[in-house]
Amino acid sequence: MDFDARGAGKDSRGWKLLIAAALMIAAKVAAGTAQLPSAVQPPSPMALFYSIDVSPSRIVFENPKHDFPQRIGYERKVNALLAWIEGTQNGKVRRVEFPYVRTSCGPA
User: Fold this and answer.
1) Could you give the number of structural domains in the chain?
2) Strands annotated E in the chain
3) Which of 3, 98, 101, 107 is most buried per CB count within 10 Å?
4) pLDDT tens across 35-72, in order?
5) Residues 82 and 97: beta-carbon distance below 8 Å
6) CA-angle at 24, arms to 18 and 28, nearest 5°
7) In terms of pTM, does the model score above 0.70?
């Protein structure tokens, strides 16, 4: 089974952009790979992250050689999704969480 999912997102407060990312997740027969561009100098080559923890509600990707993050994870809750990045940066363990909650968009 091969598939891929692509997306992009940003987080801002007012007119200030806090973070922007592009993501492609591709799964091949026995291995998953997440590709994350470097946020330092876009556009840049993709970093490859390989799946290390896969279940029906959770997936974690890892690239121990990447500067930061070394792990990218997603966990599905009932009406929510928790995404996170984590790893070591400047000698300290760091984790940044991105909680998403399902909401209605209202009438079109």
Assistant:
1) 1
2) 3-13, 16-27, 32-37, 46-55, 58-62, 71-76, 80-89, 92-101
3) 98
4) 554 444 445 567 788 889 988 899 899 999 998 899 99
5) yes
6) 155
7) no
